[in-house]
């Protein structure tokens, strides 16, 4: 599911930016922000860009491309729409083996380590050095392994809780500030109406459970550049497993996947009242329940440890340059311009993304709220404050696919059968460690 790669609520005030780009781009030629690219030494350069955010048929995306091409004569950007992490990663690996790679690739952050360790991604640390101050350190960390930068952040997802304000008021429930409060709210809501749940429990969302474990202090993967460690079954992770098992066993959450027709119907009918996700969640909810607009609000994610406001990023994506790109230098400069320059990161707003660049983030502060909560004028201020003060990256490893396969179905079965969530975390740990060792990695202690 690619909900984690979608943007935040629509950015209506900046929608006009993309519309006027084509008309003004010639006047701006030569003024690219954050490192422009020129035609290669052998003449004009065409950069093939695998992306799902910039769609060829989208006028806003075309306007961004035209802007860059006008500012960088001799460079042409060719958009190729390629969808989410598993598909893109496997296609890139195949293209690398065939020596037919694109020049820039958009992938979700969790895909980065596997592509780096496979040797198909270029180290762009020096290429993006002029742009380092244009993106916060904790956001660069999403595209960094060790001290090397392998990608330019595109969009980010600081975690938040989005909830139905009207129904919380109806059931006499205060918005939770801690996960303990969250459990109490779930109990009170379900007691008031057994058909209503605070939220759903979607066992296959590995990224969410990894993020919550990170909030509790766990690091499911970590590396010093030579050795990997795995902490899926450490004490902090198992405490979060106990938390969710308690809510599921008491029937305080609806055990079902997200964004199915059934889930969508319950959201529309006021039977599911919240979603702990990220700043992109309002746009997703609006897409399935537009008639509920004006009845929602977003607040910081509940705290795992009272007084510790740390929250993880959830979702988002980055721009990589394949090692075998024939135009790697030009590709890295374009990626840096699009994701990190003031101009590029602001233009990403026209695609309904929550940009990682400082300028794009600052521009959100003057935007209208997401269409799901037009009354919440401080939505972007809350999201941005979370990023600056407390947001931590989640470290992914080279075999996320192994964890995904071992975790999701097993946790869903445990939720339905009433068996141990801890055992799922422990068995996933074992599967991930065994796979790393069998693949030739050195595995140490967390």
Q: Can you walk me through this structure?
A:
Helix content is 41%, strand content 15%. With 446 residues, it is α/β, with parallel strands linked by helices. The protein has two domains: 3-156 and 315-367, Periplasmic binding protein-like II (D-Maltodextrin-Binding Protein, domain 2, 3-Layer(aba) Sandwich); 159-312 and 393-444, Periplasmic binding protein-like II (D-Maltodextrin-Binding Protein, domain 2). The chain has a five-stranded mixed beta sheet with strand order 2-1-3-15-6, sandwiched between helices. α2 (59-71) links the parallel β1 (45-51) and β2. The protein starts with 14 loop residues before the first helix and ends with a strand.
On the 0 to 100 scale, the average pLDDT is 90
The class by helix and strand makeup works out as alpha/beta
Distance between the termini: 29 Å
In helices, the fraction of residues equals: 40-55%
Superfamily (CATH H level) name of the largest domain? Periplasmic binding protein-like II
Poorly predicted regions are 1-38
- The first-level CATH class name of the largest domain: Alpha Beta
How would you concisely characterize the structure shown here?
With 446 residues, the protein is an alpha/beta fold. It contains 17 helices and 17 strands.
Which tags fit this structure?
D-Maltodextrin-Binding Protein, domain 2, alpha/beta, 3-stranded antiparallel sheet, 17 helices, 2 domains
List the helices and strands and how they pair.
Elements: H1 15-24, E1 45-51, H2 59-71, E2 75-81, H3 85-97, E3 104-108, H4 112-117, H5 137-140, E4 144-145, E5 148-149, E6 151-155, E7 159-164, H6 165-170, H7 179-192, E8 200-201, H8 206-215, E9 221-223, E10 227-230, H9 235-249, E11 254-255, H10 261-268, E12 274-278, H11 281-288, E13 296-300, E14 311-312, E15 317-320, H12 328-340, H13 342-347, H14 358-364, H15 379-390, E16 391-392, H16 400-417, H17 421-438, E17 442-444
Parallel strand pairs: 1-2, 1-3, 8-11, 10-17, 14-16
Antiparallel strand pairs: 3-15, 4-5, 6-15, 7-12, 7-13, 9-10
Helix pairs in contact: 1-2, 8-9, 16-17
């Amino acid at each position: 599911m690619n909900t984690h790669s979608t943007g935040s609520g629509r950015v209506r005030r900046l929608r006009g930016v993309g519309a006027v780009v084509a008309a003004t781009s010639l006047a701006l030629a030569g003024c690219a922000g954050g490192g422009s690219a020129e035609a290669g030494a052998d003449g004009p350069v065409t950069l093939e860009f695998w992306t799902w955010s910039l769609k060829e048929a989208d006028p806003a995306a075309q306007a961004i491309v035209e802007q860059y091409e006008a500012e960088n004569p001799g460079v042409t950007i060719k958009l190729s729409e390629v969808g989410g992490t598993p598909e893109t990663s496997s296609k890139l690996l195949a293209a690398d083996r065939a020596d037919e790679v694109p020049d820039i690739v958009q992938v979700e952050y969790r895909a980065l380590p596997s592509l780096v360790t496979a040797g198909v991604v270029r180290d762009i640390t020096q290429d993006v050095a002029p742009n380092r101050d244009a993106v916060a350190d904790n956001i660069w960390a999403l595209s960094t392994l060790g001290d090397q930068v392998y990608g330019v952040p595109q969009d980010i997802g600081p975690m938040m809780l989005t909830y139905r304000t009207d129904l919380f008021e109806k059931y006499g429930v205060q918005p939770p500030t801690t996960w303990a409060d969250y459990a109490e709210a779930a109990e009170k809501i379900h007691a008031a109406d057994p058909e209503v749940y605070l939220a759903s429990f979607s066992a296959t969302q590995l990224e969410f459970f990894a993020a919550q474990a990170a909030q509790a202090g766990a690091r499911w993967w970590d590396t010093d550049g030579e050795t990997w460690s795995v902490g899926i079954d450490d004490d902090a992770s198992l405490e979060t497993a106990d938390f969710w098992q308690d809510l599921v066993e008491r029937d305080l959450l609806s055990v079902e996947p997200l964004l199915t027709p059934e889930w969508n119907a319950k959201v529309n009918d006021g039977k599911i009242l919240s979603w702990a996700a990220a700043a992109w969640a309002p746009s997703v909810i609006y897409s399935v329940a537009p008639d509920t607009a004006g009845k929602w609000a977003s607040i910081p994610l509940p705290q795992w440890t009272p007084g510790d406001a740390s929250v993880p990023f959830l979702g988002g994506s980055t721009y990589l340059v394949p090692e075998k790109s024939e135009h790697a230098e030009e590709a890295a400069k374009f990626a840096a311009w699009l994701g990190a320059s003031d101009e590029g990161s602001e233009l990403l707003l026209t695609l309904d993304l929550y940009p990682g660049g400082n300028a794009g983030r600052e521009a959100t502060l003057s935007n209208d709220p997401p269409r799901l909560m037009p009354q919440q004028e401080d939505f972007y201020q809350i999201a941005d404050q979370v990023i600056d003060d407390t947001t931590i990256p989640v470290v992914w490893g080279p075999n996320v696919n192994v964890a995904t396969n071992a975790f999701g179905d097993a946790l869903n079965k445990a939720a339905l059968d009433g068996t141990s969530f801890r055992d799922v975390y422990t068995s996933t740990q074992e599967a991930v460690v065994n796979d790393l060792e069998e693949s030739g990695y050195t595995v140490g202690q967390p």
